[in-house]
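Narrative summary of target 7.
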Amino acid sequence: MALSKGIGVLAYLIDYRGRATAHENLRAAFAKEHITQDQIVRIAIASYQTFARTFLDLFWTQRLTEENYSEIITLQLEEPDIVEIASRKGGLWVTPHFGNFEIISLIWGFRGVKFLVVAQDFKNPTLTGVFKKLREGTGHTVIPQQAAMLRLMKALKKGANTALLTDLNIPPSKTATAIECFGLKTCVTTLHVNISDRLGLPVFPGLCIPLEDGKYRIYMACGIYAKDFPNHQAMAQAVWDHNEKNIREFPEAWLWMYKHWRYLPGTDPDPAYPDYANPSTPFRKMLAAV
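Modeled conformation, tokenized:
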């Protein structure tokens, strides 16, 4: 814990670009709450510390076992039968870059739910191998992004489970949609929604909340299905709403250093958005179609 806090402060001081992005994001997201500069700095530093803790703890998780993990991690399940549902029909387990998004995947391996995880390779093959081994520590299978979709779809049709990160801002396309995030428009993936719709699988939104004593609390919402929504945009928004509720309560746990709002909804600069946001014709067309 002490090491992650120290590394986080150092990273905040050195990473001037990420620091500036975090400040802009926090200003825009909490403008209605009249966030102060002191609060922005405090949350941004804590966000760096959380990110450092996530990756330090990924190495430490080698000491976790099926017998002792519950001493460190508490599960809060809205759907008590979630493991039985996942084992019977499979599902898509989604989380944002919040808290320890690495541990939330590993823990379900101890509960008998094995994931097929799509991960981007590092430029250094040695690092790729190290992190692949760590992420597969509880029985999961990590596959590279190249040609992953076909393999993923085949596995899910047979009742497999997969884990996905869904809060990254992506360019407007057929596999993206516009949602409202902290009162601002942004563009996110609909991969989980598309697969849920095509295969009839549940999407399980979850978060791993870091606690001050070094432990974690994993919160999992009930499974949601594409058939219960009028369109893909509405389902993507519902998944995000689960995330935002907890991010507002624990803002220091989200990755504020990432550019979450790259596209402006109009053609002119908008002071409500971060200063890195730019006009985008494809994004405006997407908003008009929603």
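Residues 192 and 247 are 20 Å apart (CA to CA).
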